[in-house]
Design a protein that fits this description.
By secondary structure, this protein is an alpha/beta fold. The protein folds into two domains: 111 residues, 3-Layer(aba) Sandwich (Rossmann fold); 35 residues, no CATH class. The protein contains six helices and eight strands, in the order αββαββββββαααα. It is globular, with a radius of gyration of 20 Å. The chain starts with 5 loop residues before the first helix and ends with a helix. It is found in: Synapse.
């Protein structure tokens, strides 16, 4: 039997993603009578903030997709470096983006219904630490397709490996092989 065409992999991915979005929206109580209504045509929609580099057009990927078969998905896309967030303890929050598209500066402020993070939120490079935005989204309780806790945990590679070591100890090397590593708390211990 021939392998399925490449398109089915993409549609399978979007089907899984669509299901994750539906579950996130439902668990967050996003699907209710107070849904946002667009000015054009009076259609209901949910606003998805996608944090990613511009190489993927997420608005195109979600075009025609719906949450619970009822709510259109409107996409705002920006990189971490283009985002600012203000969050209050009562759950109110606002996201501001300043992006340059086709040479023009675009500034928008909105309240996303949920977020999809596709860009790394932390690197040791200068000006590449966006953990504060992940913390702000968690603080505000912004629903996320991929858990904000897992995104924050992935900021620290030794922390992630420690979680893998825990799984390794539970399942054993036959079921969960793991490359051997050694953790040093600082360079002095490694050299000594």
């Amino acid at each position: 039997q021939p392998p399925p065409p490449q398109q089915s992999t993409g549609s399978s991915f979007f089907s899984s993603l669509s299901n994750a979005v539906k579950q996130t929206a439902a668990s967050a109580g996003l699907v209710d009578a107070s849904a946002a209504v667009s000015a054009a045509g009076g259609r209901k929609f949910k606003l998805l903030l996608v944090i990613d580099e511009p190489h993927t057009d997420w608005a195109k990927a979600f075009r025609g997709k719906k949450v619970h078969g009822e709510y259109d998905i409107k996409v705002e896309q920006a990189e971490f470096s283009e985002i600012n967030l203000i969050a209050h303890a009562d759950g109110n929050y606002a996201v501001d983006i300043q992006i340059i598209r086709n040479g023009a500066k675009v500034v928008r402020s909105f309240r996303p219904d949920f977020v999809l993070v596709r860009q790394h939120s932390y690197s040791m490079a200068e000006n590449e630490d966006f953990r504060n935005l992940i913390i702000g989204m968690q603080y505000a309780g912004v629903p996320s397709v991929n858990s904000l806790e897992s995104i924050y945990n992935f900021c620290d590679k030794p922390w992630v490996f420690a979680q893998l070591v825990s799984v390794y100890k539970t399942l054993g090397p036959e079921k969960f092989p793991l490359i051997e590593q050694t953790f040093y708390p600082n360079h002095k211990e490694m050299v000594g």
